[in-house]
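Appendix B: a complete holo record

For completeness, this appendix reproduces one full record from the ligand-bound portion of the collection. The bound molecule is zinc ion. The inputs are the chain sequence and the ligand SMILES; the output is the full three-dimensional arrangement of the complex, encoded as structure tokens. No fields have been trimmed.
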Amino acid sequence: MTDTKKLCDLCGLIVETPTYTWKTKEGIKVFCCEGCKGIYQLLNEDDILPEPDQN
Ligand SMILES: [Zn+2]
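The structure of the chain with zinc ion bound, as generated:
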């Protein structure tokens, strides 16, 4: 079976719905929860690109 589910870029859990994401220099990072997203921001602040206004 080929499954294209994404994995949390911090803890490696399967991300059912990519609700928590950061746009970084290396591409879009996805996270399983707001906690992982927050920790990734602390650790990789320099890699995260500023988010433009989302309409
Ligand atoms: Zn996670």
